[in-house]
Design brief:
Elements (H helix, E strand, L loop, with lengths): L4 H14 L11 H4 L2 H8 L1 H22 L19 E13 L6 E3 L3 E6 L4 E6 L4 E11 L2 E10 L15 E10 L2 E7 L4 E11 L2
Antiparallel strand pairs: 1-2, 1-3, 1-9, 3-4, 4-5, 5-6, 6-7, 7-8, 8-9
Length: 204
């Protein structure tokens, strides 16, 4: 389905704002920006994978297996953790229900995302949908980067800065799981799930 005028305007604004998100020289490192709560959250990523998959697999094994490395916490390339600048097709998966309103496994339709910048800090934003993560991808080690960002909701017109509202803050890891395939893994987000996985594949 083609994006409507409102979505196109919002996407254009999002792309413009991306260019101003912490990409200049002298950007603080991720470990200088991260809150204590999110530092602790990153330490739980293994537990989040184990808990979420234990909840999801009994009824959704085929869906998990069909995605190959995407839902295998031990499979990631040893380098190239940060995706290059460009337009991406993103899919968001929520694993493990946090609350009675969610299913144990939820797969959302593909949406448009963008990565801008280069070097050790790159902006990332999901441009479509009611829930739109946006923030910064940081280099950490060749096999794994760090994502710090916030959740933009509904009709909001610009991303919220990380650290402004703890309920909206997002913290996770970014890894390459294919030649041209990445994932952002968000352990214990504030809403709906135990683990969120965002798949990034270049458009075209």
């Amino acid at each position: 389905m083609a994006a409507g005028p409102r979505n196109r305007r919002r996407a254009a604004l999002g792309l413009a704002l991306l260019g101003g998100l912490l990409l200049a020289a002298g950007v603080p490192r991720w470990d200088q920006r991260i809150t204590d709560a999110d530092r602790n959250r990153l330490r739980t990523v293994h537990n989040a994978w184990v808990e979420a998959l234990a909840r999801v697999r009994p009824a959704n094994a085929a869906a998990l297996d069909a995605e190959g490395a995407l839902f295998d916490s031990d499979r990631a390339f040893e380098d190239g953790a940060l995706p290059p600048a460009g337009a991406y097709r993103c899919r968001v998966f929520k694993l493990g229900a946090n609350g009675t309103a969610m299913a144990e496994f939820t797969a959302y339709p593909a949406a448009r995302c963008a990565v801008t910048g280069q070097g050790d800090a790159r902006s990332f934003a999901k441009l479509d949908g009611e829930q739109r993560p946006a923030g910064t991808l940081y280099a950490r080690e060749p096999a794994r980067g760090v994502f710090l960002g916030a959740l933009e909701l509904g009709m909001e017109q610009r991303p919220m800065d990380y650290g402004t509202d703890a309920k909206r803050d997002l913290a996770g890891f970014v890894e390459r799981v294919g030649e041209r395939r990445w994932r952002v893994v968000l352990p214990y987000p504030r809403f709906e799930s135990i683990l969120d996985v965002i798949e990034l594949v270049p458009e075209g």
